[in-house]
């Protein structure tokens, strides 16, 4: 549930950096660096531990550790609370403290590693999925990519195209939801259709089971078209 977990460095690299830091601060220090497979790790099983360093945010976690230790027949740990450092360069939407989540958000837009070569995928066309909520900037980014030479496939437009008379989903949708969804000119009234399906999970699934495969097929056709154009 971390923010942008894809940008968290591998455990081995993080452990190596921590080891380098500890050796730089105090070469004579004895320590163990332990990967955590659960929220508690060795803190609730190691009888030799005496102290747990917490912050104001993690004190409750420290108290949970002590409850677990008592359940396991071990003495409580001394909880040493440290203050969090404020981030002097944080933006308005970032946490006040120095936060790895904020640091990862700042990495967006930078290339951390080259694209992975997957032998199961063709070298071209290179397909990018652009998603996001309303107002998140999809249209602007799509235009930018288009100016850079990308072949842009607008799934929203394809979603409208499958409904038009003669479109691949037209007859199945009319058959499933009745002629009352049609305008006088024979086109599907999307508002009437929407009123039938939204709020009704079974009907909505029936609609998406018809429409989404057809949109996916149209996307694949557009990808082949892009490939033919050398995009």
UniProtKB/TrEMBL annotation:
NCBIfam families documented for this protein: dephospho-CoA kinase
Keyword tags: ATP-binding, Nucleotide-binding
Record PANTHER family: BIFUNCTIONAL COENZYME A SYNTHASE-RELATED (PTHR10695:SF46), DEPHOSPHO-COA KINASE-RELATED (PTHR10695)
Pfam families tied to this protein: CoaE
Any one Gene Ontology molecular-function term assigned to this protein's record: ATP binding
Stored InterPro entries: Depp_CoAkinase, P-loop_NTPase, Rossmann-like_a/b/a_fold
GO biological process terms on file: coenzyme A biosynthetic process
Keyword Nucleotide-binding: yes
Name of the protein described by the UniProt record: COASY synthase
Gene: Coasy
